[in-house]
Design brief:
single chain; about 100 residues; alpha+beta; GIY-YIG endonuclease; 4-stranded antiparallel β-sheet; 3 helices; about 25% strand
């Protein structure tokens, strides 16, 4: 999977690719993962904007790392493994 890391701001999110499904990690300045999620092709930027402060589903963070893949099912499998392994603070159990 191709990976890109940017600041977790509207300007940083605008720089991210939106043409493939993606796994994203919202991280603190020190690199601790606060949230792991997935987004379908064409919805990556929109989903990340939903996590900004004051938005629908806010998650605190300083940077976001995005990994693209060719298929959403591969992204979702990777997401489930990553959540189980790291247990990020803002991922709700049973979601």
């Amino acid at each position: 999977m191709a990976t890109k890391t940017v600041k977790f701001t509207p300007a940083g999110i605008a720089k991210l690719p939106n043409d493939k499904p993606a796994l994203y990690r919202i991280e603190t300045e020190s690199g601790r993962t606060n949230y792991i999620g997935s987004a379908q092709r064409g919805r990556v930027r929109e989903r990340l904007k939903e996590h900004l402060p004051g938005a629908r589903d806010p998650v605190p963070g300083a940077k976001v790392q995005v990994q693209q893949a060719h298929r959403i099912d591969a992204v979702r499998r990777t997401e489930a493994r990553a959540i189980a392994r790291t247990q990020p603070k803002y991922n709700n159990k049973g979601k």
